[in-house]
């Protein structure tokens, strides 16, 4: 299985970032590759910009650890195995780091997933109305 990881440091408190990440049904609001999303605490559906649909089960939504994990379980893409993990870590100075990891199979899907996740993570600060730390 191919493992991917993107991260960003934000000048945003971890609890504020987590409030966005934990809202699983609204991922399309901040994830540019997604045209729409819907769901609840256990399951969500995302529709990509090209109209492809992905059904996902929410595996973990841990408010204490600020960790979200989800697994692709159906839809239009030929995903054999998938686990996405988003961790929001508190840097204790009003900043946070977001680490978004993906395990995906088959490997030929990895470049598309990597590009989409990297774009979403890079844009998260802008969505939150803040510039990522270290950028101007």
From TrEMBL:
Database matches in Gene3D superfamilies: 3.30.530.20
SUPFAM superfamilies on file: Bet v1-like
Record's superkingdom?
Answer: Bacteria
> Matching Pfam families, A to Z?
Polyketide_cyc2
Q: What is this protein called?
A: SRPBCC family protein
Originating species: Nocardioides albidus
């Amino acid at each position: 299985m191919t493992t991917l990881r993107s991260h960003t440091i934000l000048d945003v408190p971890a609890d504020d970032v987590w409030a966005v990440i934990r809202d699983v049904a609204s991922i399309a609001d901040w994830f540019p590759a997604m045209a729409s999303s819907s769901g609840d605490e256990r399951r969500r559906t995302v529709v990509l910009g090209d109209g492809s649909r992905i059904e996902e089960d929410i595996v973990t939504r841990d408010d204490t650890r600020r960790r979200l994990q989800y697994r692709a379980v159906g839809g239009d893409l030929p995903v054999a195995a998938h686990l996405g993990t988003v961790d929001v870590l508190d840097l204790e100075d009003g900043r946070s780091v977001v680490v978004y990891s993906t395990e995906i199979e088959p490997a030929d899907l990895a470049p598309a997933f990597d590009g989409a996740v990297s774009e979403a993570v890079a844009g998260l600060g802008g969505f939150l109305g803040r510039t990522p730390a270290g950028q101007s």
